[in-house]
Design a protein that fits this description.
The chain is an alpha/beta fold. It has one domain: Alpha-Beta Barrel (TIM Barrel), CATH 3.20.20.210. The chain is built from 10 helices and 10 strands. The strands form 2 sheets. The protein has a 7-stranded parallel β-sheet with strand order 1-4-6-7-8-9-10. The longest helix is centred in the first third of the chain and has 22 residues. It is globular.
Length: 341
C-alpha cells in the first residue's frame, strides 16, 4: 500500500451475472446450497482481480457474499422474524416492508468470518470489510420487543463487536461500519448513535471506519437529495462528535455532491475517506476529475490521512462502468501523489 492516498471502494461492486441479476440492488441469488457457497467464492476472486486490475490499494469484498448490506447480517441473528413483516419508513424517506424484532437479538455464530478468511488467503494487500452500523440496523426493522431504538442499537452493537473481533482475527485490516442513518437522525446520533458505534469497535486493534453518505444512486435517494438545497450540511451535525470518537477513519460523499468541502476541517486529525467517484451516474470520471476533488480535500485534511474512495457502493451499475470508475479513482490518486512528491 502506498504511503499516500491509498485507494479503495467504499461498499458494493456489481455481482457477476451468473451469481445474481446484474444492475439491481438486493437481487436474489441464482444458485443454492454448495453451489452458492462456491459461486460466492468465485465472485470474491473476480472482484479481487478487478480491483487489482484497476489499481486499488485496499481490497474490499464488494459485498459479493451478501444480498443486502444490512439485512444479510441480521438474517443470522436470533430474535428477528423475517416472516412477520411490517411497513416502516426507511431513513425518513421511503416505505419498505421489513422484518420484525420479536425477542432478544443475539449472534449465535459468525456471519462473514469464513468469507473474510477466504479473501484474506487470496491477497497480500490490506483488506477492508464492511458491517452495518447499529443505528442503520435499527432503522431497517420494526421493533416489537425492545420498544426503544436506543436499547436495540446497544444490543446490535454487542453482536457487531463479536463479529468484528473475529473478522480482525481472520486478518481484516480495516473494519468499516455503514451508517447512512447518521445523515438523518442527528439528535439520536449525538445522544447514543456514536456511543453505540464505539461499543461496536471496543477492543479492536485493527483500524475502524464509519461510512456516512447520501445513499446509492436509486430514485428514492436522488429525489431526497434534490430537497436538500444548495448546500448539504448534514455532516456538520455529526463530524465534531466523530472527531472526538475512537473511530479511525470517516468516509463521506464528496464528488458531485453539494457538501461544502470545508466541512472536512471538522475531522482534522482523523483519517478521511473522501468520495471522489459519483455512484449516482453512469458517466465515468476522468483521472483529472478525481484529482480535482482530492486537491480540494487536501486543503482540509493532511495528505497522509486522505484515503480516496467512492461515494458509496456501485452494485446498481454495470461492471464496465464500475471498472472504469475504479480505474479513474486510482489514476487520479496517482496524479496527486506525484504532485505531492
Amino acid at each position: 500500500m502506498p504511503d499516500l492516498l491509498p485507494t479503495s471502494t467504499v461498499g458494493s461492486l456489481p455481482k457477476p451475472s451468473w451469481l445474481a441479476a446484474p444492475e439491481q440492488l438486493w437481487s436474489p441469488w441464482k444458485l443454492q446450497g454448495e453451489e452458492l457457497v462456491a459461486g460466492r467464492q468465485d465472485a470474491l476472486r473476480v472482484t479481487l482481480a478487478e480491483q487489482n486490475r484497476a489499481g486499488c490499494d485496499i481490497i474490499c469484498d464488494g459485498e459479493q457474499t451478501r444480498q443486502h448490506f444490512v439485512t444479510t447480517f441480521i438474517e443470522h441473528l436470533s430474535g428477528v422474524d423475517f416472516e412477520k413483516r411490517e411497513t416502516v419508513k426507511i431513513r425518513d424517506r421511503y416505505d419498505a416492508s421489513v422484518p420484525t424484532v420479536v425477542g432478544p437479538v443475539t449472534r449465535e455464530k459468525p456471519v462473514f468470518v469464513e468469507d473474510a478468511k477466504f479473501l484474506r488467503a487470496q491477497t497480500g494487500k490490506p483488506i477492508k470489510w464492511a458491517l452495518p452500523g447499529p443505528m442503520t440496523m435499527v432503522d431497517t426493522l420494526y421493533d416489537a420487543h425492545y420498544k426503544s431504538r436506543e436499547k436495540l442499537a446497544w444490543e446490535f452493537a454487542e453482536t457487531l463487536n463479536q463479529e468484528a473481533r473475529e473478522l480482525e482475527a481472520a486478518g481484516v485490516t480495516i473494519i468499516q461500519f455503514d451508517e447512512p442513518a447518521f445523515n438523518v437522525f442527528f439528535d439520536e446520533v449525538n445522544d447514543w448513535g456514536i456511543a453505540a458505534l464505539e461499543r461496536a469497535i471496543d477492543g479492536l486493534q485493527c483500524e475502524t471506519a464509519v461510512h456516512i453518505c447520501y445513499g446509492y444512486g436509486i430514485k428514492a435517494n436522488t429525489d431526497w437529495k434534490n430537497t436538500l438545497g444548495a448546500e448539504w450540511r448534514q455532516y456538520e451535525n455529526t463530524f465534531p462528535r466523530l472527531q472526538a470518537s475512537g473511530i479511525d477513519l470517516v468516509s463521506l460523499e464528496c464528488h458531485n455532491s453539494r457538501v461544502p468541502i470545508e466541512l472536512i476541517e471538522l475531522l482534522r486529525g482523523k483519517k478521511v475517506m473522501v468520495g471522489a467517484i459519483d455512484v449516482a451516474t453512469t458517466d465515468i470520471e476522468t483521472p483529472e476529475d478525481v484529482a480535482s476533488t482530492l486537491r480540494k480535500a487536501l486543503q482540509f485534511v493532511d495528505a497522509e490521512k486522505l484515503y480516496p474512495s467512492t461515494n458509496c457502493g456501485m452494485a446498481p451499475l454495470s461492471r464496465d462502468v464500475a471498472r472504469g470508475k475504479l480505474a479513474a479513482l486510482s489514476a487520479g490518486a496517482r496524479i496527486v501523489r506525484q504532485e505531492i512528491a
